[in-house]
Design goal:
Largest sheet: 6 strands, parallel
Bound molecules: alpha-L-arabinofuranose
Radius of gyration: 25 Å
Structural class: alpha/beta
Helix content: 40-55%
Number of helices: 11
Strand content: 15-25%
Order of helices and strands: HEHEHEHEEHEHEHEHEHEHEEH
Length: about 350
């Protein structure tokens, strides 16, 4: 064997060894159900393998189960985790910020790969978010923003709540012809959607001096509280009320019951605009009891896990990933109801 042939044999041997090494460092097999294209490719020899969904351990600090919207949101997160084979540690805080903080601390202790959180209120998160950052665990805000410096979270996935408020205000001014006395059911005090929907609505009606908000109170995003506060509005203002603006459909549905029990017709005597576009709102529109619903998309599971995987693999993600949303009126309700997923 001459020198050239010896070199050839050595080179082929080295290549074969490298290929064997490559197989041993290949990433864990992706989940059976994870569709092709959602699986990370094997890394070239010498590089760290990209993580796949099957490698991911994700902690999710959910707010609770206050509305139809939240139920759909939780289902979307859980179903998608199962579909992709992600290990999900899910916590329901029952509407309490202290429980969400405890959940985040427990995810840090368990060294999850990514934490998702939907902050019940905007303030009071800096300390615990900093703890996650110090532990090297990326945090994704889902559905709601928190008032913290931008370096404490990697991205916010969710709606433009100010725009939702503006859309509701525009719809209300069209429905009322620019004139009328409005009562407002505000969401959870201090929450991003309540703050922003409050602001956006006022921005949109400001050009109509004939539109007046005569009362505004929190119904905490629940049906029961929406009904209770609407009863109090009716007691104080009765027939004076021309319209109701509710920050979510659940409170509007609770209020509809209160209006009927008071002896007035919701959707006619009192016009109603609310936000979320859940199935219950479409049913109320078909019955003529609701005049408009502005969409807020809860089906955030697929985008959330996609972002989580990108983040753990060191890919750059946008600081805000907005959801796409529409506005719906009674004329479209019957046709669209069967197509609604929540
Ligand atoms: O954060 C989104 C809001 O929270 C929804 O509009 C409401 O229904 C939910 O509870």
């Amino acid at each position: 064997m001459n020198v050239r042939n010896v070199l050839y044999v050595v080179l082929v041997g080295a290549l074969m060894l490298a290929m064997v090494g490559c197989t041993t460092v290949a990433p864990a097999a992706p989940a059976a159900e994870a569709p092709a294209g959602e699986q990370a490719a094997a890394a070239p020899a010498g590089e760290t393998a990209a993580k796949t969904y099957a490698d991911l351990v994700v902690g999710y600090a959910q707010i609770g189960a206050e509305s139809e919207w939240r139920t759909a949101n939780t289902a979307s997160i859980k179903d998608e985790a199962e579909r992709l084979g992600v290990e999900l540690k899910f916590s329901d805080a029952q509407q309490k910020q202290e429980n969400q903080i405890k959940a985040i601390r427990s995810f840090i202790a368990q060294q999850v790969d990514v934490i998702g959180v939907s902050p019940v209120v905007e303030t009071g998160w800096e300390t615990v978010f900093q703890e996650a950052k110090d532990a090297g665990i990326p945090l994704i805000l889902v559905d709601r923003r928190a008032a913290v410096p931008e370096d404490l979270y990697v991205t916010y996935l969710g709606s433009d709540f100010i725009e939702e408020g503006r859309r509701a205000g525009k719809a209300m001014s069209d429905i009322l012809g620019g004139e009328g006395k409005i009562v407002e059911l505000v969401g959870t005090v201090g929450s991003a959607p309540a703050n922003d929907r409050y602001t956006g609505f006022r921005e949109a009606i400001t050009e109509f001096p004939g539109m007046e908000i005569i009362a505004s109170q929190s119904g905490d995003f629940t049906r029961a509280k929406g009904k209770e506060v609407m009863e109090a509005f009716l007691k104080s203002y009765g027939d004076e009320i021309d319209a109701l603006y509710a920050h979510n459909d659940d409170m509007a549905i609770g209020a509809i019951q209160a209006i009927e029990e008071y002896g007035l017709k919701p959707g006619e005597d009192i016009k109603i605009v609310s936000i979320d576009a859940v199935r219950g709102a479409f049913e109320a529109m078909i019955e003529g009891k609701l005049n408009c619903t502005v969409e807020c998309n809860p089906l955030l599971g697929p985008q959330f896990f996609e972002l989580a995987l990108q983040v753990v693999n060191g890919e750059e993600v946008a600081k805000w990933v907005p959801s796409e949303e529409g506005v719906f009126f009674p004329e479209q309700a019957a046709e669209l109801l069967p197509t609604r997923q929540y």
